Amino acid sequence: MIVTTVNANGIRAAVKQRSETNLGMLPWLKETEADVICLQETRADDAQLADALAPALADGWHLASAEPHVKGRNGVAVLSRTPFDAVRIGAGAEEFAAHGRYIEVDTAGVTVASVYLPTGEAETDRQLEKERFMAATQERMAVLLDRAVRGGNDAVLCGDWNIAHTENDIKAWKNNVKKSGFLPSERQWLTDLLATGWVDVVRALHPDVPGPYSWWSWRGKAFDNDAGWRIDYHLASPALAARAVSARVERAELYALRWSDHAPVTVEFS
Length: 270
Prior knowledge:
The chain is an alpha+beta fold. About 25% of the residues lie in helices and about 25% in strands.
């Protein structure tokens, strides 16, 4: 199974972007070898998303989505080449049930979730909201991990976690130690999560190196200088993580060829 995650930064914009040069998201979907694709920040309701992805659905992709409760914000989805056996929206906390930040599917014998953590803002209510979502996600992950180790479905949670875990996961880490996304408490949360048994598959396959980054600001020369953040993760249950044979960031060759400020992150499991 090959699993890809990407924050689309607005599905309708991603689909339209560079459509005239055949380098946008829809051509990428035609070429990808992925079996499952997790999308975040679709910024579309279910009908708009299905309309934007209509050519891909006509090619046989199955779509499950969780639309945002605020127009033009959030939204997560999963595309799969095999039908879904089950679809679950929300990580369990009532506060976030309709926020379009978490969707979980069972497909081909594996549980796959698309997750989009809030951006947050240090020392504000936005950060407190992010922390509550983190707590809800952690509780759900504990259930999934327990199920996996007891012989149930293996699981992988993919998405934009809006946290760079270590200094190797952000180019300009010294400038961001007091900012949301690289706060000590957020980084510790990820450390604690991994200590329970979840595996950061990309880092496991690319140990002790800077990056590979998956997000770069649209501004300045961040992309050209590879001054990015690695915030798009595949967190897999232990048995599934042990089957990971490769991981890569599908970074565009040029700034002008990007259809999102994130690049797809792809993991192949044997």
